[in-house]
Design a protein that fits this description.
Distance between the termini: 40 Å
Number of strands: 11
Largest sheet: 7 strands, mixed
Length: 126
């Protein structure tokens, strides 16, 4: 059973930056592709970014491409999301998730992820 704990959320002004972290425990971290999703009030859960288990490939939603960067450190069992040039539309709860698929696979579909964290709130003021 993989346990995921996010941190790093908070209040930031438009144009600013935040770095989210998600630390995993209870499993072989490199055996999982990792993803970040977000959910704003009244909206569906939205894919943000994903990274393969080996860290060799990343994929982004169009809404964050060029502003956000996903990375991972398998030695620290942690995945990161660096968010630059934030805007109020980025306000949401950000959740990390693990997909049991090693190597080069990844997915943008939330239903395929096996484990989820509780989320961390990000608020961006205009």
């Amino acid at each position: 059973q993989l346990r995921l704990v996010e941190s790093g959320g908070g209040l930031e002004q438009a144009g600013g930056s935040l770095r989210l972290s998600c630390e995993a425990s209870g499993g072989i971290f490199s055996s999982y592709a990792m993803g970040w999703f977000r959910q704003a009030p009244g909206k569906d859960r939205e894919f943000v970014a994903s990274i393969t288990g080996n860290g060799g490939y990343t994929f982004y939603a169009d809404s964050v491409k060029g502003r956000f960067t996903i990375s991972r450190d398998n030695a620290k069992n942690t995945v990161y999301l660096l968010m630059n040039t934030l805007n109020p539309e980025d306000t949401a709860i950000y959740l990390c998730a693990a997909y049991a698929c090693s190597g080069w696979c990844y997915t943008t579909t939330p239903q395929q992820y096996n484990y989820w964290g509780q989320g961390t709130q990000v608020n961006v003021s205009s």
